[in-house]
Amino acid sequence: MGQIKLSKDACMRAITYSNEANEQLMTNISVMDNNVNSQFAGLQDPAFNRYLELSSQMQGMLKQIGGKMEAISEYCQSVIRWMDDYSES
């Protein structure tokens, strides 16, 4: 069985990447929502209303992905703390 090698640097990069990806995802969700809403404000088409429902569901799922990215960051921070504790012993 192979060995897993961890490094603080790798964990810090994972934290940075997950935080940046989460920020970009949330920004893009907001931009998309604002663009669609401004383009079709006041439209009472049933197909568009269905689109809004599906868009809302998609945004909820994307926010769940953002939550997973936050969890990755938190996990990496716990790994770094574990490394610090282990190396001090």
Short key terms for the protein model shown above:
single chain, rod-shaped, mainly alpha, 84% helix, 89 residues, 2 helices
Kindly describe this structure:
This protein is an all-alpha fold and 89 residues long. The protein is built from 2 helices and no strands. Helix 1 packs antiparallel against helix 2 (46-88).
Shape: rod-shaped
Low-confidence stretches: none
Distance between the termini: 27 Å
Strand content: under 5%
Helix share, percent: over 70%
Order of helices and strands: HH
Radius of gyration: 20 Å
> What is the residue-mean pLDDT, rounded to a whole number?
87
What is the β-strand count?
0
Please count the helical segments. 2
The helix-and-strand class reads: mainly alpha
Query: Describe the biggest sheet?
Result: none
Compile the SSE list and pairings:
Layout lengths: L7 H32 L6 H43 L1
Q: What's the short version?
A:
By secondary structure, the protein is mostly helical.
